[in-house]
## 1
Amino acid sequence: MPRRIESLFLDGPAGRLEALLEEPEAALKEAALVCHPHPQHGGTMHNKVVYRIARGLRRAGAVVLRFNYRGVNLSEGVYAHGEGELEDARCALTALRGRYPDLPVTLAGFSFGSRIALRLACGGEPSRRAIAVGFPTVYKDRSYLQSCTVPRVFVQSTQDQYGPASELEALVATLPEPKRLVFIEAQDHFFAGALERLEEEIAQLD
């Protein structure tokens, strides 16, 4: 169980953003922002994969901030085609840094959220690493990845219908170091049958 859980609202670029801050029981080692899946396909900060990512990071000593993009649940505003959601994440990251200015930062996300996390990390936001879970290769704009040298960890289901193993392997092979690709035996994009294994893998990442 986390040591402290706080529900809060952040002043986002399109209105208030609903967020959840969770500290671990262990000594704080880092701060982590976790971004959720596509808001137009049912994605929220309470998604089961996002929850497992957050719990794995807490087990490793991270204070974790999850948030809902604009227009999701109690967050104000409307969907803004990825660009507005990127700015929502940047706002949440600023709030997290403000609370824990001395901690290194990990940027993480699932599916659509993995793209948001990578765009932040590769777009100049200082971070020690980016963790991309369920990266969707169906999106063909990957220019932000091509010169990115922030340490990146891709964690993918072996049966991901939106990011097939062969496609992700080919993509990661073209990217500069440092990078790592981890496959988890699971039934689908949502890590069905392997959520505990996913959490364990996240908790053990360097």
## 2
Amino acid sequence: MRFDASNRLFLIWVDEQDFEASWKLKRSVELLTRAITSYVDNFDRTRIEKMKVSFSHKAKSGVFQAISDAVFVVRS
């Protein structure tokens, strides 16, 4: 069983016109680049404390901590 407590940045694609086709947005390099660039340009380091997530794992002892956030890539 693999386990990794690394930091994560989730990309969530949403096509407001066709929700079922949202997965196709990952092919849109322009839309993805715009969303990631906006996230990086507007990143506020003071928010890091609020982004920390503590969790445990059934096969490992101890409490783990990671930094996690999400970027919503939306086509309307």
## 3
Amino acid sequence: MVVTSGATGYGKKIVEKEKSIAGRLGQKELAAIGQGVLFGEYYKYFSRQNIVTAQILVTRKVQEKVLNNLLKKGVVPIINGNDPDCTQDLMYNDNDSLAGDVAIATKANQVIILTDIDGVYDFNPCRNKNAKKFKVLHRIPKALLDNSKETGSSVGTGGMYTKLKMARKLLNKNIDIYITSSMEDVGVFLANNNQGKGTLITAQ
């Protein structure tokens, strides 16, 4: 399964190029414009591998029956929050929480997170050059969680804080989490018995 962000970013790019759209649009409207383009990119990639995909837009209730039925048929769900069509109380504030709920609902054994930092550090490596990266974590101490608090990007939400909060939840379900910044490293990780350059968070 793929939990993805990017709809708002695509929407922003489209609006910036399209001179016929005057005035400023909010995040919900940008996500509505960009969602089809985002899914189209995944469809294009997976269809080259003869893999069927399904677009799943969720609110706070993950439809585990639908996801499991698709997985049984070899269909890859491409999952995103349904931002344009739900109120704030039903909306996922970040895709890390969404990925965690999807993993629990489908009894996944592993969640791989691609982000802009190549693993989990004891301090923010962008602000502290002496920060040290963890190769393996078996628990998420409160001090580490507190040190990870930061904002997301201009077109997304979340940060290492939301990832570690989600990891805490998944550890209690014996679901492993791997955090890295490189798709190439994901391949290395999967091919080498869970050994890669990122950080593995596991109860094992």
## 4
Amino acid sequence: MPLWITRVAVVIGFLVACGISAQVLHEVSPVAQPAGSYIVFKFDWDQGRPWVKYAISVDDAGNAHFEGVGNPVDSGDGDSFSQDFTMSDANRQKIFELTKKADYFQGDLESKVKNIAKTGQKTLIYHGKTATGGQAVNTAAAYNYSTNADVQELTRFFQAVATTIDFGRKLAFQYRFDKLGLDARLYSLQEMYTTHFVEELQAIEPILQKIASDPNMMHINRVTAKQLLKSIGPTVAPSQPATQP
């Protein structure tokens, strides 16, 4: 794992473990800067389900790291959870392009519309060069809800990735302790993938492979896992990092 992701993970993990306030959690963390660019999405809400707080970081080579704390009401598990994965090349390029279109999160992203329901504090962070070149910038913007279409899509995407990670940890638990419950979980995952509520299935490919190849599993579960595996696209990034926004 690249050194910068290790350091980002350490900082994120420390903040999550300490349970500090949202105001502190969502400041730009002083981490060692990689040679390229990276994007971070953070979420924090004590009523959030399945996660009450999490952060996802992605660099321009597709190296991604997730760190989160689950909602104990949702799963009975309020411990922290972390995972590294490689983002698909298509989505890697997509989020950096959306970041460029969103002016690298410079300025206020919060909607001015009144009476918007609270859905958790989100923060988007960018480190890297802008389209104009020059020195790398460090920008961050927090919001509950944004009317910016590019920010909305980034929010949807990162929340869908967090949902995928949650499915992975729950499938792993049920594979060990509750195989009868896998049928409903896999069906739900398949439905949510079809409706784009989960993204980056390759992040949970290992547990799907276990289920698909286990001769002791119910046939329907193996079939569903195999169908999900077939939908996973290529994740190998090109030899050169993403074109700098």
